[in-house]
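Demo today. Your pick:
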Amino acid sequence: MEQKTSVAPVALKWGLIMGIVSIVYQVIVNLTEQFINPWMGGAALLIPILGLVFALREFRSNNNGFLTLGEALSTGTLAVAVSSMISSVFQQIYLNFIDPSFPEKMMNKMREYFEDLGLDEAVLEKQMEKMADQFNNPGISFFWQILVSILIGFILSLIIGAIMRKEKPVFD
């Protein structure tokens, strides 16, 4: 009987790598105050996409060139869960200890952005209240960030896994 390749080592390795890269990316975006730039949000999506491609490629290589969709979903979702835990913990540390003034800076930038869009004052105030609530409830924000990241990771793992999968022949 063949020995089954384990998902955990590959997922943990690539989750750690994606988490560290995400932290570096967050610091750069925060220091340059580019957090409302839509291009930066799109660029942030490249981290899990590339991380998942490398993770699934490594798993497939370790598994004699085979990768099922289930293995791709397990590996990818676990890797993204690890990555999101790491980056979410860092974000809480950043907001509470490294730069406690960050929420105020971000709210000011968002206010300018919404004003430039010509939003109605009532809508603008409602958006600013929502944002303030997020910063005032770090536990809820932490939970939602991880949950949304895992959901996005699952979807990306499904797509990338469907592209990269290679099933073992049934009669071999």
In short: The longest helix spans residues 69-98.
